[in-house]
Automatic annotation (TrEMBL):
Cofactor, free-text remark: Binds 1 divalent metal cation per subunit.
GO BP term, pick one: N-acetylglucosamine catabolic process
Names of required cofactors: a divalent metal cation
The protein's name in its UniProt record: N-acetylglucosamine-6-phosphate deacetylase
Domain Amidohydrolase-related: 47-358
Organism per entry: Pseudoduganella rivuli
UniProt similarity note: Belongs to the metallo-dependent hydrolases superfamily. NagA family.
């Protein structure tokens, strides 16, 4: 791996640009400088925009809710799997525990760790949820208030907030949250189709882990999932092929123009089978699946974004389409206009894959965060 990260980097291979694939050479400092077409360049390296994960609870044995330096550990682990930006995601918990997590995310953001994915803020998942659709969330729900959100937002920037829009007071809360620049999502919701449509009219931006933790679709009662399918422009989905069957993913892809992937990764991600923590809940990882120890509910995942990309390709998406759903669409959704695509002037957040879609190296703002053994790229003065 190059050590002089102040010099421009040169990557060669098949480069995915908004206009399509280019055989050639990418030159980058902190931002992408040039993309040079060269038909003589070998195509055994695929150069894609860095992945952007808007729903991450943990990895490598640690959980965002632990606070302290947990967020740094999480960001470093996911960077090795191609994630260059992420949101640290909370769980339903008492206010002091949520605040501990927020302080940890704030410290990690301030540290600007050179070896980890950039933490772009917080996804507040809970406590403004419906007790009837908790999934792996603990039963510590509360009604949302703008005063509470402002207090938490002052600790660390809340970029995405999940709530159940059918809870009294939450529909009126949505436009107030939008005014703070927060993207509001429906999730852990027992709401009806009509509740979902009303929330969208109030400013709801998306849906949290589509199909999971929400009232399901049937042709008599379309539910919250039906509102997403009929009217949603954006929604997140967990493509670990356990939370959602491939056929349901394909149906959602046809219905929701900018469906994007998230991992919902837990502290069990990257760890051997065994028991781990998800907030205050004990979970068990077995065979790549994470479930509550007491009960059969899925409890987040052990997914990484590079595996999400491979799974989307397995479902039948082209690599360019799959890339949009792990990079461009989440960047657009969050308003991160400086990343998510390989374009001169954008941040040099780049992942290099081999033809089996395995990560070979990762750049964050032009710095090499990770390179697989035997992987070499030019760094020129």
């Amino acid at each position: 791996m190059p050590t002089d990260t102040t010099s421009p980097a040169v990557l060669e291979g098949r480069i995915l640009t908004p206009a399509g694939w280019v055989h050639g050479r990418l030159r980058a400092g902190a931002t992408i400088d040039t993309i040079e077409a060269d038909a003589t360049v070998r195509g055994d390296r695929l150069i894609l925009p860095g992945f952007i994960d808007l729903h991450v609870h943990g990895a490598d044995g640690v959980d965002i809710m632990q606070g302290g330096d947990a967020a740094l550990t999480v960001a470093r682990f996911h960077a090795r799997h191609g994630t260059t930006s992420l949101l640290g995601t909370t769980m339903t918990a008492p206010p002091d525990e949520i605040e501990r997590a927020l302080h940890g995310v704030r410290s990690a953001m301030a540290a600007g760790d050179a070896q980890g994915a950039q933490i772009a803020g917080v996804h507040l998942e809970g406590p403004f949820l419906n007790v009837r659709r908790l999934g792996a969330q603990p039963p510590l729900v509360a009604g949302g208030t703008i005063e509470q959100v402002r207090r938490w937002h002052a600790i660390a920037p809340i970029r995405v907030l999940t709530l159940a829009p059918e809870i009294p007071g939450h529909l009126e809360l949505i436009p107030q949250l939008c005014a703070l620049g927060i993207r509001v999502q429906a999730g852990h919701s027992a709401g009806s189709y009509e509740d979902g449509v009303a929330a969208l009219d109030a400013g709801l931006a998306g849906f949290t882990h589509l199909f999971n933790g929400m009232s399901g679709f049937n042709h008599y009662q379309p539910g919250m999932a039906g509102a997403a399918l009929a009217h949603g422009a954006y929604a997140e989905i967990i493509p670990d092929l356990q939370h959602v069957a491939p056929g349901a993913i394909r149906a959602a892809l046809r219905a929701i123009p900018r469906l994007y992937a998230v991992t919902d990764a837990t502290s069990a991600t990257g760890m051997p089978d065994g028991q781990y923590m998800l907030g205050s809940q004990r979970v068990a990882k077995c065979g790549g699946c994470v479930r509550l120890v007491h009960g059969d509910s899925l409890a987040g995942s052990a997914l990484t974004m590079d595996q999400a990309l491979r799974n989307l390709a397995h479902v039948g998406l082209s690599l360019a389409d799959a890339s949009d759903r792990v990079s461009r669409f989440p960047a657009e959704y969050l308003g991160l206009h400086d990343r998510g695509a390989i374009v001169p002037g954008k941040r040099a957040d780049v992942v290099v894959l081999d033809t089996d879609l395995q990560v070979r190296s990762v750049l964050l703002a032009g710095r090499f965060l990770h390179a697989a053994q035997g992987e070499h790229h030019a760094v020129v003065a």
